[in-house]
Design a protein that fits this description.
The complex is a heterodimer. In chain A, about 75% of the residues lie in helices and about 0% in strands. Chain A is mainly α. In chain A, α5 packs antiparallel against α6, α10 packs antiparallel against α14 and α13 packs across α14. Chain A contains 14 helices and no strands. Chain B is about 30% helix and about 20% strand. Chain B contains 15 helices and 19 strands. Classes of the chains: A mainly alpha, B alpha+beta.
Chain lengths: ~325, ~525
């Protein structure tokens, strides 16, 4: 196993390199440049314009720029954001807590809802529970999350007044103890994490759990377990589920990068200061160092996520060995 | 009625009158404004409007602008210009302190302008000070600027926010931590900036002008327009700009006062005059006359716009009220185009000349509903005179780069533009600015050049006005761009705030005078 892990880690390096090369290349090829930042008060005069371009090294040919950037990355220097004039690493790290506060609950909620419902659907196919679950999944997967978010805000925040409209916290919260702040944060999370992100993730997961479970309970060993007199509950929730979760683990591994990649739509609607918004704004402004910095992070997470999925696969299924 | 009773009645009326009379302003309460994210809080470096709003409350300039677009004293209590128009002397207030307690002096002013002119500083503001020969600190409270030639727009350039020498000397201003935690001399003191969440500033108890009544201002960063409007409606934010599409709905919200007022912004069609077909003022006039601007104002801008006849807003002193807008007249347009050699010789419905039809690629901004509607109407209205507009909607960064010098890779485009407080339009319409400056359309006219240059040198306001009135007339005749409409700005603010006076230069120009009656205060 250790050998396997080491081998995978070594392979990851050229993979990351390849990803950065492709991203750098795409940014380079994208029409439009740093002028988008200055349009409201456009640079007057040739010298000033050229000075800005030279300062940011934007006049160099592609291989030179890539090599320079790579050289700095290896030393841990991710450069400065062109737009915000701050170190890229600082900007990224600043966003991590808020992003995790959004994505972890979303994934947790979706797992906690999708697994039980998926199991029930598989065990009682075409029943009311199953049909309702399938229909809901279909609706939530098809509805654009932006629309879902706005509707949720209009219903739950504006008309019913149960939830805040946007943001991370209430301005002027009375008597802030850690408990009231915690509850306040949860209330602000319901729409972005629970509804916008959560429902989308849940809908997808339910289908996976259901189909995987559906197949597993038709296996011979399940029939054997029933025949041996094992209680039905135990058969389903201990034996069948454990096997059915294997593809789900793979999915969760693939979702790992979203933990820090953020979710730009949920963040934009709910004014949540996450990584998604930072990234998209950087792309629109052609803020190369920031785009590449976040891209590196997410690429690394993709690699780690896949690794975690494979390792947990081996842990869950004793038949699987990596040597 | 007995005398006593009559007396009592009068007494009651008197007391009632006193009660209803304007209460004096009281301190307290907080203003929450919804904005999109600011970039950098340094007056020398910023380029976006959001940063500008916050900077305006934290920093001060030598002078400031009021709601009538006039210049008032700020850090300078008085100033004079020499007879030859070359030397400006500013007399600075002696009671001004930076937010950290250090006294403000002319050294700070010198430092600010030297930083701007320093080639190492990444700023777009250098062009404003090109004509300065010399900056001088005469004494700690007297600052002198000597120009190479008389420069009338100078006063507007001195609204520039002044930065503190004692905190920024020796620092690389482009990446200084100061840009996230500014110290200024303005009515509000910066407290904190949590990225993508909010910026807070508190009352400056030692402000040299009116000490604000409000305790603090919080700018909440809410990127989605629709959500910002919902927050305004719910009362969880107090102030926000209102996009045209939300105007009617927000007017019906009881606790919000919706202000609409003329702004300095106009929309126009830009033509690349390097192309022979656009290098003819008859053609450009025709292209303007073929568009029904009044209807567009009604339909697209909900009546919140007026037809533009030049780059001068109706509220400006440089605006010539005798200049009539070109009429909506497709027939006349066709005649003008015919004069320029464009006729439909082959009966296909499109005008042509030397074998090519009159068509062009027209750039619009993707995702902008106003752009989409205006361009759709334009396509139809141009078709009626035989001109073919081929629209291309581009993402903003891409759009902007097409306009960039020196390549200017465009044929025509639709854009909005905010003019400055001073009517000087040198960078936009002077021939020297065609290659590298803002004169994107490459407009060249000798008389316009002369008038622009004269307008910049003339220090006497009345004489200057005559120059700009003539310039206005000529620009309307020549249509360097097809002037479309001056749009109104719409903002919504909670009714509990008193003292709010909208102005074309921004809502917060007099924020230190805003107050909330005691009984209505929420924080």
């Amino acid at each position: 196993m250790i050998v396997y892990l080491v081998r995978r880690s070594i392979v990851a390096l050229p993979l990351l390199l390849g990803i950065t090369f492709v991203t750098f290349g795409m940014m380079h090829l994208t029409p439009g440049g740093i002028s988008a930042v200055f349009i409201d008060a456009r640079v007057r005069g040739e010298e000033d314009r050229l000075a800005i371009i030279r300062h940011f090294g934007l006049d160099q040919p592609f291989p030179v720029r890539y090599a320079r950037w790579l050289g700095r990355i290896v030393q841990g220097d991710f450069g400065h954001s062109l737009v915000q004039r701050r170190p890229v690493l600082e900007l990224i790290v600043e966003r991590i807590p808020a992003t995790l506060q959004l994505t972890i609950p979303a994934i947790l909620v979706s797992v906690l809802i999708a697994i039980p419902i998926g199991v029930l659907s598989a065990v009682r196919p075409y029943s009311i529970v199953d049909n309702l679950a399938t229909l809901s999944a279909f609706i939530f997967v098809s509805t654009p999350s932006f629309f879902l978010g706005l509707v949720a805000i209009i219903i739950f925040s504006v008309q019913l007044g149960w939830l805040p409209i946007s943001g991370m916290s209430t301005v002027g919260l009375q008597d802030p103890t850690w408990w009231t702040v915690f509850i306040d944060r949860l209330r602000h999370l319901v729409i972005p994490a629970g509804i916008v992100l959560g429902l989308g993730y849940t809908a997808g997961l339910i289908r996976y759990v259901r189909s995987s479970m559906f197949e597993v309970i038709r296996q011979d060993y399940i029939r054997t377990a029933h025949a041996k007199g094992v209680r039905h509950r135990v058969v389903i929730w201990k034996h069948a589920l454990r096997n059915a979760l294997l593809p789900v683990v793979t999915i969760l591994g693939l979702w790992f990068p979203f933990l820090l990649g953020g979710a730009v739509i949920a963040e934009t609607i709910s004014a949540w200061p996450g990584m998604g918004r930072l990234f998209v704004a950087a792309v629109f402004a052609r803020d190369f160092p920031l785009v590449l910095g976040i891209n590196m992070l997410v690429a690394a997470l993709v690699v780690v996520g896949n690794l975690l999925a494979d390792v947990s696969y081996a842990l869950l299924d004793p038949r699987i060995r990596y040597d | 009625m007995s005398r006593v009773k009559i007396g009592m009645v009068w007494l009651l009326i008197g007391l009632l009158a006193i009660g209803l009379a304007e209460q004096p302003p009281v301190r307290g309460d907080k203003l929450i404004m919804g904005i999109v994210s600011p970039m950098v809080l340094n007056p020398v470096l910023f380029t976006d409007v959001q940063s500008g709003v916050i900077i305006g409350t934290v920093f001060s300039g030598l002078v400031k602008v009021n709601d009538r677009l006039e210049h008032e004293p700020d850090l300078a209590h008085s100033w004079e210009v020499s007879a030859d128009g070359l030397v400006w002397t500013f007399h600075l207030r002696q009671d001004v302190y930076w937010h950290d307690g250090t006294p403000f002096t002319a050294e700070d002013v010198l430092f600010t302008f030297e930083t701007i002119m320093d080639p190492h500083t990444i700023t777009v503001r250098r062009g404003d000070y090109e004509k300065v020969e010399k900056w001088e600190v005469v004494d700690p409270y007297t600052f002198r600027v000597t120009f190479r030639e008389p420069f009338a727009p100078a006063l507007q350039a001195f609204t520039m926010g002044i930065i503190p020498k004692h905190l920024l000397e020796g620092e690389d201003i482009n990446v200084a931590a100061f840009n996230r935690a500014p110290i200024g001399t303005g009515p509000f003191v910066f407290r904190e900036w949590i990225s993508d969440v909010h910026v807070i500033a508190d009352r400056n108890e030692h402000y040299h002008g009116q000490v604000p009544y409000l305790d603090s201002i919080m700018w909440r960063i809410i990127p989605a327009d629709d959500v910002r409007m919902l927050e305004l409606e719910a009362g969880t934010i107090d102030l926000a700009g209102i996009p045209t599409v939300h105007y009617q709905r927000m007017r019906g919200v009881e606790h919000i006062y919706v202000h609409r007022y003329p702004s300095l912004r106009f929309d126009y069609f830009g033509w690349n005059e390097r192309l022979p077909k656009f290098d003819d003022d008859r053609v450009r006039r025709a292209l303007t006359m073929a568009i029904d601007r009044e209807t567009i104002a009604e339909v697209v801008y909900e009546g919140l716009a007026v037809v533009a006849t030049g780059p001068f807003p109706p509220i400006s002193w440089a605006f010539n009220p005798d200049v009539r807008p070109l009429p909506y007249d497709p027939e006349q347009a066709r005649r003008l185009l015919a004069e320029a050699g464009w006729q439909d010789t082959d009966g296909d419905g499109w005008l042509d000349r030397e074998g090519a039809i009159f068509e062009f690629e027209f750039l619009g901004r993707a995702g902008d509903p106003v752009h989409a509607m205006v361009i759709e109407l334009a396509i139809e209205q141009y078709r009626q005179i035989g001109v073919r507009l081929n629209p291309l909607f581009l993402e903003w960064g891409d759009f902007v780069s097409r306009l960039d010098p020196p390549r200017r890779a465009f044929e025509a485009f639709f854009l909005g533009f905010t003019v400055g407080v001073d009517p000087d339009v040198y960078v936009y319409y002077h021939s020297s600015q065609a290659e590298w400056g803002f004169n994107d359309t490459n407009f060249v006219d000798a008389r316009v050049d002369e008038l622009i240059e004269a307008g910049r040198r003339e220090m006497d306001r009345e004489a200057r006005r005559a120059i700009y009135w003539e310039l206005h007339e000529r620009l309307n005749e020549l249509q360097p761009v097809s002037f479309m409409l001056f749009t109104e700005a719409i903002i919504g603010i909670s009714r509990r705030f008193h003292g709010v006076v909208p102005s074309p230069v921004g809502m917060m120009w007099n924020v230190e005078y805003w107050w909330v009656p005691e009984g209505l205060q929420r924080f």
